[in-house]
Structures are given as structure tokens and as C-alpha cells.
Amino acid sequence: MTPQSDEDEVWRQIVASFNDTAERDSADQPWPDSENVPAEPTRRVVKPSEEPEPDEDSYNDSYKDSYKDSADDEEEDEGHFEPPAPPPLPKLDLPTKLAWVALFGGPAYLLVAAMASWHMEGWALFTAVAAFIGGFVALVVRMGDGPPNDSGWDDGAVL
Question: Looking at the record, which segments are called Disordered (predicted)?
């Protein structure tokens, strides 16, 4: 037999057994014990380790106090990450601010006018659409293609 005829025979068997019922019903199959979930979750109890204490009473009291304070601090700080403050946003110049206002102002005017059922003149529609397109073009042109000025001498992989 050739490998192709073996494959064809396997496919014929799969197609012929497509509508056959399973030999064993799924309700009859045993459920594995590893899949059982306990009714109440088990809780792990960790006992604190006992530290040897110094012999002198006065030293002993100060040792206990300092040990408790340091243990409390460690428990509070453990697993808590506080990110550093983000750098300030760059200051925008007047043309960039105007471009952003035009980009969002034109569609905002059209949306408010449509929702309020205002009668819009042709020049108002043209101005709103032109403001949107002009703001977009201004932002794209001002974006620039070069690397940032503060990137240093090593620009990484530049293709």
C-alpha cells in the first residue's frame, strides 16, 4: 500500500464513523479525583519563627520594641510598589494649540449643531470641515520625521 492510500483509508473511516454514537456515555465515565474542588478552601497557617532574646531585661525591652517596629515596616512595605513621578508634559506653542483646537473644534461644532437642529449655512459647514482638515495637516506637518533632540549619540537600531 502506498502512503496516499493509507491516508485515504483513514479518512474513509473517520467519515464513516462521524454519526456513530460514543461507546460510553460521558455520564458513565469516572471523574478524576484531581479535578474535585474542596468545599472550603484550605488556609495555610504560618507560625512566626521564635527569635532568641537577650538576657538583660532593659536590653530585652528595647530589643522587642525595635524588632516589632522593623517587622511592621517590612510587612507594610512588602509587595507595594510606588512608581516615580512622571516627567512634566512638554509646553505647547501657540500654532500647535490652535491646530488641536481646530482638529476637535470643527467636528464638535458640527455635532452640536446637528443635535440642536440648527440651520447651518454653507460657509459654516465649509469652515468646520476646513478647520478639521487644516488642524490635522498642521499637526502632521509639525510632527517631523527626525529623531528627538535629546536622544543622544546612540539612536539604537536605525534602518
Answer: 15-92
